[in-house]
Amino acid sequence: QRRPKKDAPHEMELQCTLEELYKGTTRRMKISHKRLDASGAQRQEQEILEINVRPGWKAGTKITFQEKGDENPGRIASDIVFVLQEKPHPLFKRDGNDLIYTHRLPLADALCGSVVQLQTLDGRPLTVPVHDPVSPQQEKVVQGEGMPVTKHPGQRGNLRIRFDVLFPRQLNDGQKAMLRQVLPTH
Amino acid sequence: QRRPKKDAPHEMELQCTLEELYKGTTRRMKISHKRLDASGAQRQEQEILEINVRPGWKAGTKITFQEKGDENPGRIASDIVFVLQEKPHPLFKRDGNDLIYTHRLPLADALCGSVVQLQTLDGRPLTVPVHDPVSPQQEKVVQGEGMPVTKHPGQRGNLRIRFDVLFPRQLNDGQKAMLRQVLPTH
Predict the structure, then answer these.
(1) pLDDT digits (tens, 9 = 90+) for A133-149
(2) Which residue from A108, A176, A183 is facing B185, i.e. has the nearest CB?
(3) Of A30, A48, A181, B128, which one has the greatest count of Cβ atoms within 10 A?
(4) Does the record bear Chaperone in its keywords (chains A, B) (predicted)?
Protein backbone atom coordinates (compact mmCIF):
# COMPACT_ATOMS: atom_id res chain seq x y z
CA GLN A 1 0.00 0.00 0.00
CA ARG A 2 1.27 3.46 -0.96
CA ARG A 3 1.40 6.15 1.68
CA PRO A 4 -0.82 9.08 0.65
CA LYS A 5 1.10 12.21 -0.25
CA LYS A 6 0.61 15.72 1.05
CA ASP A 7 -0.15 18.61 -1.30
CA ALA A 8 2.20 21.61 -1.32
CA PRO A 9 1.61 24.07 1.55
CA HIS A 10 -0.67 27.03 0.95
CA GLU A 11 1.04 30.32 1.91
CA MET A 12 -0.93 33.34 3.14
CA GLU A 13 0.18 36.78 4.27
CA LEU A 14 -0.21 37.89 7.86
CA GLN A 15 -0.01 41.68 7.96
CA CYS A 16 0.96 43.13 11.35
CA THR A 17 1.53 46.71 12.48
CA LEU A 18 4.69 47.65 14.37
CA GLU A 19 2.48 48.25 17.42
CA GLU A 20 1.23 44.66 17.25
CA LEU A 21 4.76 43.32 16.89
CA TYR A 22 5.91 45.49 19.79
CA LYS A 23 3.29 44.38 22.27
CA GLY A 24 2.37 40.99 20.83
CA THR A 25 -1.22 40.14 19.94
CA THR A 26 -3.62 37.33 19.12
CA ARG A 27 -4.93 37.23 15.58
CA ARG A 28 -7.89 35.14 14.49
CA MET A 29 -7.73 34.23 10.80
CA LYS A 30 -10.87 32.94 9.12
CA ILE A 31 -9.90 30.42 6.46
CA SER A 32 -11.89 28.34 4.02
CA HIS A 33 -10.76 24.86 2.96
CA LYS A 34 -12.14 21.79 1.17
CA ARG A 35 -12.82 18.75 3.34
CA LEU A 36 -13.94 15.22 2.42
CA ASP A 37 -17.07 13.99 4.17
CA ALA A 38 -17.88 10.32 5.07
CA SER A 39 -19.15 9.63 1.53
CA GLY A 40 -15.91 10.97 0.00
CA ALA A 41 -17.55 14.12 -1.40
CA GLN A 42 -15.62 17.39 -1.15
CA ARG A 43 -17.25 20.23 0.77
CA GLN A 44 -16.15 23.80 1.49
CA GLU A 45 -15.73 24.39 5.22
CA GLN A 46 -14.69 27.41 7.25
CA GLU A 47 -12.45 27.45 10.28
CA ILE A 48 -10.86 30.04 12.48
CA LEU A 49 -7.13 29.71 13.17
CA GLU A 50 -5.65 31.53 16.13
CA ILE A 51 -2.16 32.98 15.84
CA ASN A 52 -0.32 34.06 18.94
CA VAL A 53 1.94 36.85 17.61
CA ARG A 54 4.86 37.15 20.02
CA PRO A 55 6.54 40.48 20.83
CA GLY A 56 9.51 41.10 18.51
CA TRP A 57 8.53 38.77 15.67
CA LYS A 58 10.12 39.83 12.39
CA ALA A 59 8.88 40.02 8.81
CA GLY A 60 9.27 36.61 7.17
CA THR A 61 8.41 34.62 10.32
CA LYS A 62 6.40 31.58 9.22
CA ILE A 63 3.57 30.06 11.24
CA THR A 64 2.45 26.62 10.01
CA PHE A 65 -0.91 24.99 10.64
CA GLN A 66 -0.62 21.30 9.83
CA GLU A 67 -3.23 19.91 7.40
CA LYS A 68 -5.46 22.99 7.50
CA GLY A 69 -5.43 23.44 3.70
CA ASP A 70 -7.57 21.67 1.10
CA GLU A 71 -8.16 17.94 1.43
CA ASN A 72 -8.18 16.16 -1.94
CA PRO A 73 -9.15 12.52 -2.53
CA GLY A 74 -6.24 10.13 -1.90
CA ARG A 75 -4.04 12.90 -0.49
CA ILE A 76 -3.20 14.25 2.95
CA ALA A 77 -4.62 17.76 3.43
CA SER A 78 -1.99 20.44 2.78
CA ASP A 79 -0.56 22.77 5.43
CA ILE A 80 -1.43 26.45 5.71
CA VAL A 81 1.59 28.68 6.27
CA PHE A 82 1.20 32.30 7.36
CA VAL A 83 4.13 34.54 6.43
CA LEU A 84 4.44 37.60 8.61
CA GLN A 85 4.61 40.97 6.87
CA GLU A 86 5.32 44.25 8.58
CA LYS A 87 3.00 47.13 7.70
CA PRO A 88 4.94 50.36 7.10
CA HIS A 89 4.71 52.72 10.07
CA PRO A 90 4.32 56.47 9.58
CA LEU A 91 6.98 57.38 12.19
CA PHE A 92 9.24 54.44 12.92
CA LYS A 93 11.37 52.27 10.68
CA ARG A 94 12.58 48.94 11.95
CA ASP A 95 16.19 47.82 11.56
CA GLY A 96 16.52 44.38 13.15
CA ASN A 97 15.80 44.98 16.83
CA ASP A 98 16.31 48.74 16.52
CA LEU A 99 13.77 51.41 15.73
CA ILE A 100 14.74 54.45 13.68
CA TYR A 101 12.91 57.72 14.17
CA THR A 102 13.65 60.70 11.96
CA HIS A 103 13.24 64.05 13.69
CA ARG A 104 12.79 67.03 11.40
CA LEU A 105 14.07 70.29 12.82
CA PRO A 106 15.21 73.73 11.62
CA LEU A 107 18.96 74.40 11.47
CA ALA A 108 18.78 76.78 14.44
CA ASP A 109 17.47 73.96 16.67
CA ALA A 110 20.01 71.50 15.26
CA LEU A 111 22.80 73.88 16.27
CA CYS A 112 21.45 75.42 19.49
CA GLY A 113 19.61 72.49 21.01
CA SER A 114 16.10 71.12 21.05
CA VAL A 115 13.88 68.52 22.62
CA VAL A 116 12.70 65.48 20.70
CA GLN A 117 9.23 64.47 21.84
CA LEU A 118 7.60 61.30 20.63
CA GLN A 119 5.25 58.55 21.61
CA THR A 120 6.56 55.00 21.91
CA LEU A 121 4.81 52.09 20.16
CA ASP A 122 3.11 51.18 23.45
CA GLY A 123 1.85 54.75 23.84
CA ARG A 124 4.27 56.21 26.43
CA PRO A 125 5.49 59.79 25.90
CA LEU A 126 9.28 59.95 25.46
CA THR A 127 11.28 63.16 25.84
CA VAL A 128 14.88 63.28 24.59
CA PRO A 129 16.72 66.57 25.18
CA VAL A 130 19.51 67.41 22.71
CA HIS A 131 22.14 69.91 23.84
CA ASP A 132 25.11 69.66 21.47
CA PRO A 133 24.77 70.41 17.76
CA VAL A 134 23.40 67.52 15.73
CA SER A 135 24.11 66.89 12.07
CA PRO A 136 22.28 64.85 9.43
CA GLN A 137 25.08 62.25 9.57
CA GLN A 138 24.55 61.70 13.28
CA GLU A 139 22.30 59.37 15.23
CA LYS A 140 21.30 59.81 18.85
CA VAL A 141 20.82 56.42 20.45
CA VAL A 142 18.30 55.83 23.24
CA GLN A 143 19.23 52.49 24.82
CA GLY A 144 16.49 49.89 25.24
CA GLU A 145 13.71 51.81 23.47
CA GLY A 146 13.72 49.59 20.38
CA MET A 147 11.75 46.43 19.58
CA PRO A 148 11.51 43.52 22.01
CA VAL A 149 13.87 40.59 21.30
CA THR A 150 11.68 37.48 20.94
CA LYS A 151 14.39 35.05 22.04
CA HIS A 152 15.33 37.08 25.12
CA PRO A 153 12.16 38.30 26.85
CA GLY A 154 12.70 41.57 28.67
CA GLN A 155 15.54 42.58 26.33
CA ARG A 156 14.98 45.35 23.79
CA GLY A 157 16.87 46.93 20.89
CA ASN A 158 17.67 50.64 20.71
CA LEU A 159 15.84 53.68 19.43
CA ARG A 160 18.03 55.57 16.98
CA ILE A 161 17.04 59.18 16.34
CA ARG A 162 18.11 60.66 13.01
CA PHE A 163 17.97 64.36 12.21
CA ASP A 164 16.50 65.82 9.07
CA VAL A 165 17.90 69.35 9.30
CA LEU A 166 16.00 72.06 7.41
CA PHE A 167 18.44 74.55 5.95
CA PRO A 168 17.39 78.12 5.18
CA ARG A 169 16.65 78.63 1.47
CA GLN A 170 18.14 82.08 1.29
CA LEU A 171 20.20 84.36 3.51
CA ASN A 172 20.92 88.06 3.00
CA ASP A 173 24.41 89.57 3.11
CA GLY A 174 23.96 90.77 6.70
CA GLN A 175 22.99 87.31 7.90
CA LYS A 176 25.89 85.74 6.01
CA ALA A 177 28.40 88.17 7.56
CA MET A 178 27.09 87.38 11.06
CA LEU A 179 27.21 83.62 10.43
CA ARG A 180 30.81 83.84 9.17
CA GLN A 181 31.71 85.57 12.44
CA VAL A 182 29.92 83.13 14.74
CA LEU A 183 30.52 79.74 13.13
CA PRO A 184 33.91 78.04 13.47
CA THR A 185 35.93 77.89 10.28
CA HIS A 186 37.79 74.61 10.99
CA GLN B 1 29.37 13.15 -39.69
CA ARG B 2 28.82 15.02 -36.41
CA ARG B 3 29.51 18.74 -36.33
CA PRO B 4 32.23 19.44 -33.76
CA LYS B 5 31.00 21.29 -30.68
CA LYS B 6 32.38 24.43 -29.11
CA ASP B 7 33.58 24.47 -25.52
CA ALA B 8 31.96 26.96 -23.11
CA PRO B 9 33.33 30.50 -23.36
CA HIS B 10 36.15 31.53 -21.05
CA GLU B 11 35.31 34.76 -19.16
CA MET B 12 37.99 37.19 -18.03
CA GLU B 13 37.78 40.52 -16.21
CA LEU B 14 38.73 43.75 -17.94
CA GLN B 15 39.39 46.36 -15.26
CA CYS B 16 39.07 49.97 -16.46
CA THR B 17 39.43 53.26 -14.64
CA LEU B 18 36.75 55.94 -14.93
CA GLU B 19 39.30 58.03 -16.83
CA GLU B 20 39.69 55.27 -19.43
CA LEU B 21 35.92 54.90 -19.76
CA TYR B 22 35.56 58.67 -20.08
CA LYS B 23 38.07 59.14 -22.87
CA GLY B 24 38.08 55.68 -24.40
CA THR B 25 41.27 53.71 -24.76
CA THR B 26 42.91 50.76 -26.47
CA ARG B 27 43.82 47.85 -24.22
CA ARG B 28 46.15 45.06 -25.30
CA MET B 29 45.46 41.84 -23.38
CA LYS B 30 48.07 39.08 -23.48
CA ILE B 31 46.32 35.72 -23.34
CA SER B 32 47.57 32.17 -23.36
CA HIS B 33 45.62 29.35 -25.01
CA LYS B 34 46.13 25.74 -26.11
CA ARG B 35 46.32 25.16 -29.88
CA LEU B 36 46.54 21.94 -31.89
CA ASP B 37 49.47 21.71 -34.31
CA ALA B 38 49.50 19.77 -37.64
CA SER B 39 50.27 16.48 -35.85
CA GLY B 40 47.31 16.95 -33.50
CA ALA B 41 49.47 17.65 -30.45
CA GLN B 42 48.35 20.40 -28.05
CA ARG B 43 50.73 23.32 -27.50
CA GLN B 44 50.50 26.42 -25.31
CA GLU B 45 50.55 29.60 -27.39
CA GLN B 46 50.39 33.27 -26.54
CA GLU B 47 48.49 35.96 -28.36
CA ILE B 48 47.70 39.60 -27.87
CA LEU B 49 44.08 40.69 -28.20
CA GLU B 50 43.30 44.34 -28.78
CA ILE B 51 40.22 45.85 -27.18
CA ASN B 52 38.95 49.19 -28.36
CA VAL B 53 37.27 50.56 -25.20
CA ARG B 54 34.72 53.11 -26.35
CA PRO B 55 33.89 56.25 -24.34
CA GLY B 56 30.97 55.65 -21.99
CA TRP B 57 31.13 51.84 -21.81
CA LYS B 58 29.55 50.55 -18.63
CA ALA B 59 30.47 47.82 -16.15
CA GLY B 60 29.18 44.48 -17.42
CA THR B 61 29.85 45.24 -21.11
CA LYS B 62 31.02 42.01 -22.76
CA ILE B 63 33.61 41.84 -25.52
CA THR B 64 33.81 38.45 -27.26
CA PHE B 65 36.78 37.11 -29.20
CA GLN B 66 35.62 34.14 -31.28
CA GLU B 67 37.61 30.93 -30.86
CA LYS B 68 40.47 32.54 -28.93
CA GLY B 69 40.19 30.12 -26.01
CA ASP B 70 41.67 26.60 -25.71
CA GLU B 71 41.45 24.26 -28.68
CA ASN B 72 40.79 20.66 -27.63
CA PRO B 73 40.87 17.61 -29.95
CA GLY B 74 37.56 17.12 -31.76
CA ARG B 75 36.16 20.44 -30.51
CA ILE B 76 35.94 23.99 -31.84
CA ALA B 77 38.14 26.35 -29.83
CA SER B 78 36.13 28.23 -27.18
CA ASP B 79 35.50 31.97 -27.19
CA ILE B 80 37.17 34.41 -24.83
CA VAL B 81 34.78 36.94 -23.30
CA PHE B 82 36.07 40.01 -21.49
CA VAL B 83 33.64 41.46 -18.93
CA LEU B 84 34.22 45.11 -18.19
CA GLN B 85 34.65 46.10 -14.56
CA GLU B 86 34.85 49.67 -13.29
CA LYS B 87 37.67 50.43 -10.87
CA PRO B 88 36.47 52.55 -7.92
CA HIS B 89 37.48 56.18 -8.32
CA PRO B 90 38.66 58.23 -5.33
CA LEU B 91 36.54 61.30 -6.22
CA PHE B 92 33.75 60.37 -8.60
CA LYS B 93 30.98 57.80 -8.38
CA ARG B 94 29.17 56.78 -11.54
CA ASP B 95 25.37 56.56 -11.69
CA GLY B 96 24.44 55.50 -15.22
CA ASN B 97 25.61 58.39 -17.40
CA ASP B 98 25.92 60.76 -14.45
CA LEU B 99 28.92 61.39 -12.26
CA ILE B 100 28.48 62.14 -8.56
CA TYR B 101 31.05 64.24 -6.75
CA THR B 102 30.81 64.79 -2.99
CA HIS B 103 32.11 68.14 -1.83
CA ARG B 104 33.03 68.37 1.84
CA LEU B 105 32.64 71.83 3.33
CA PRO B 106 32.21 73.50 6.72
CA LEU B 107 28.72 74.69 7.69
CA ALA B 108 29.73 78.36 7.32
CA ASP B 109 30.57 77.77 3.63
CA ALA B 110 27.41 75.73 3.10
CA LEU B 111 25.33 78.67 4.38
CA CYS B 112 27.30 81.67 3.12
CA GLY B 113 28.55 80.42 -0.21
CA SER B 114 31.65 78.74 -1.59
CA VAL B 115 33.35 77.66 -4.76
CA VAL B 116 33.63 74.00 -5.73
CA GLN B 117 36.86 73.39 -7.60
CA LEU B 118 37.60 70.07 -9.19
CA GLN B 119 39.35 68.43 -12.08
CA THR B 120 37.29 66.60 -14.71
CA LEU B 121 38.17 63.05 -15.74
CA ASP B 122 39.92 64.43 -18.83
CA GLY B 123 41.98 66.81 -16.70
CA ARG B 124 40.20 70.15 -17.18
CA PRO B 125 39.78 72.41 -14.14
CA LEU B 126 36.11 73.02 -13.33
CA THR B 127 34.92 75.84 -11.09
CA VAL B 128 31.36 75.83 -9.76
CA PRO B 129 30.38 78.83 -7.63
CA VAL B 130 27.66 78.25 -5.04
CA HIS B 131 25.79 81.31 -3.74
CA ASP B 132 22.63 80.11 -2.00
CA PRO B 133 22.77 77.89 1.06
CA VAL B 134 23.26 74.20 0.27
CA SER B 135 22.05 71.33 2.42
CA PRO B 136 23.12 67.67 2.59
CA GLN B 137 19.82 66.67 0.91
CA GLN B 138 20.58 68.86 -2.10
CA GLU B 139 22.43 68.22 -5.34
CA LYS B 140 23.83 70.85 -7.62
CA VAL B 141 23.67 69.66 -11.21
CA VAL B 142 26.22 70.71 -13.82
CA GLN B 143 24.71 69.86 -17.21
CA GLY B 144 26.80 67.83 -19.63
CA GLU B 145 29.78 67.21 -17.32
CA GLY B 146 28.98 63.53 -16.76
CA MET B 147 30.09 60.43 -18.67
CA PRO B 148 29.88 60.19 -22.47
CA VAL B 149 26.87 58.27 -23.83
CA THR B 150 28.26 55.48 -26.04
CA LYS B 151 25.18 55.27 -28.26
CA HIS B 152 25.01 59.02 -28.83
CA PRO B 153 28.51 60.37 -29.49
CA GLY B 154 28.88 63.96 -28.34
CA GLN B 155 26.16 63.57 -25.71
CA ARG B 156 27.11 63.45 -22.03
CA GLY B 157 25.37 62.83 -18.70
CA ASN B 158 25.42 65.34 -15.84
CA LEU B 159 27.76 66.01 -12.98
CA ARG B 160 25.85 65.98 -9.69
CA ILE B 161 27.57 67.69 -6.78
CA ARG B 162 26.57 66.54 -3.30
CA PHE B 163 27.46 68.35 -0.13
CA ASP B 164 28.93 66.74 2.95
CA VAL B 165 28.40 69.56 5.46
CA LEU B 166 30.66 69.57 8.51
CA PHE B 167 28.70 70.70 11.55
CA PRO B 168 30.46 72.28 14.55
CA ARG B 169 30.92 69.79 17.40
CA GLN B 170 30.23 72.30 20.15
CA LEU B 171 29.00 75.86 20.46
CA ASN B 172 29.06 78.10 23.52
CA ASP B 173 26.04 79.96 24.86
CA GLY B 174 27.10 83.22 23.19
CA GLN B 175 27.37 81.58 19.78
CA LYS B 176 24.03 79.85 20.27
CA ALA B 177 22.30 83.12 21.17
CA MET B 178 23.73 84.82 18.07
CA LEU B 179 22.69 81.93 15.82
CA ARG B 180 19.13 81.97 17.21
CA GLN B 181 18.98 85.65 16.26
CA VAL B 182 20.39 85.29 12.76
CA LEU B 183 18.88 82.04 11.53
CA PRO B 184 15.25 81.93 10.41
CA THR B 185 12.93 80.03 12.75
CA HIS B 186 10.43 78.78 10.16
Answers:
(1) 999 989 999 999 999 99
(2) A108
(3) B128
(4) yes
